[in-house]
Design a protein that fits this description.
Elements lengths: L8 H6 L5 E5 L3 H14 L7 E6 L2 E6 L2
Antiparallel strand pairs: 1-3, 2-3
Amino acid sequence: MEVNEKPITPILRKMVVGEVQEWPVERITSVQVSVGRMHREKRREGVRFMMRTEGLFIKVTRTA
């Protein structure tokens, strides 16, 4: 599977605290929407993510 085809939401759901995943910057809107949705859905469980761009990639870290 190419990086461009890597699913976002299934990977976010499986991430553990401290894990980092990355997607190409072209998918920034999809990643932002998916991370925001996960924050809302998992608020009671305390699930949190941090997003940052590095070069041509978006890195998402599960922080809680």
